[in-house]
Design a protein that fits this description.
Length: 491
Amino acid sequence: MAQPQTIDGDVTRRGFMGVAASAAAVAGSGGLRHWGAPSPPPRVESLVEPPRIHSWRGRLSATLVIEERECFWAGARRTAVTYNGGVPGPTLVADPGDRVHVRLVNRLSTPTNLHTHGFHVPPGGNADNVMIDVPAGGTFDYQFDIPRDHPAGLNWYHPHPHGDGSRQLFGGAAGAVIFRSEAERRGAAASARDRVLVLQAPEWAADGSLKPWSANLLASQVRLVNGQQNPHVALKAGETERWRIVNASVSDFFDLRLDGHRLTQIAADGNPFSHTVETDVVHIPPGGRAEVLVRAGAPGRYALHALPSDHGAGFVSPDLVLATLDVLPDRRPRRALNPQPLLEPFCDLRTLPLDKQRTITMSMTGGFKMDGKLFDHDRVDHVVELGAVEEWTIVNDSVLAHPFHIHVNPFQVTHVNGQPVDEPGYRDTVTVHPRQSITLRTVFADFTGTSLFHCHITPHSDLGMVGVFEIVPPGEGRAPRPKPPGFLCRL
Ligand SMILES: [Cu+2]
């Protein structure tokens, strides 16, 4: 068994820039390996995280430059669509109540924009407004005022221009955003080291140029964590880490299993769970996030698998090793981490009076459609009232699985195929398998404006599987319902 590189394997402290510097040094020496060249002997590469940009005294200011360029990606120099020259882009770290300012500089030859997936902020103006385009060569200043009662957890940012979003995301343009909880700010949860794992599945031609996405790539062998193929993470026996995992692929459902370990899930889609969920396999749809506690077992080497995933219509992704956990012996006995400070109660939306029910159908007859229609950004498909509690049943009337995602407000899944389920928290993206129905409840809280719900397999949404909803003030003479306690805030 190969030995990890360092005593504790913790070369991530060296940081992203250190790796970039080593890559540059290799490039300078003329020893850079190109895609298609004979493989060197296998070596252990430690997981490297993107650089973090933290808020300071309630403010976070970041410039994100999006451009297509060569960068060091999956062990070689290849073309990518990068934020600030790296894949993935930098991780933004802020707190509820902060003002986040992002200057987006578009150095692509096509329009782009920025979707802050999982943010509960206004859908218009210069906040999470995916209806705007930032033209090639243009700059746009976004401002996100994160509500004080915003859930703490893992969110992410990525381009969302209609028709070209897939190409940019498939090319690597994505980054994580962490909102810290009060417990984390106080340090009560700091005993668990926290890692960001951005999952992507790009593919390149022999010359290192990006291939365009095609459904056939589901069977390919490229699955990356933070731009690395099978990076290693080293923990001491009994040590616990919090892994914040985002599925930033355009079309892969990740079913994660860590050999020899059970995973303790504590949050989904940036929403803390009310109780822990012990599981062997964590499912993360495209666009989704999972936060898990990993407690290292006996010393040894364990594979983190992406298990085969059935997309329907004969498309099945292969079983791949995404990363490897090296557990090192430790004489020091370690107590299990108390997960309680990481959990939050939430308002069970089944207990609230319902204002409206709707059925939304995803289909593939005559195109990738939402409710039988192709996307039209000038048409409003559903008008909802501010403060309304609604129940939506999402029906997949097609042969492929589709991850349903809605912007601005998360939801609580209540039924699968009409059968009740008890969820431990809210989500913003849910897998709907072929011929399946998912029923969810949501509250259109705090913000009016127009936004989108769509399939988060972005090639499907680029082809039209997108609906438009508008949140309007309540009808004449009706006051908006007060926001239920525990919806996007503490009980
Ligand atoms: Cu889809």
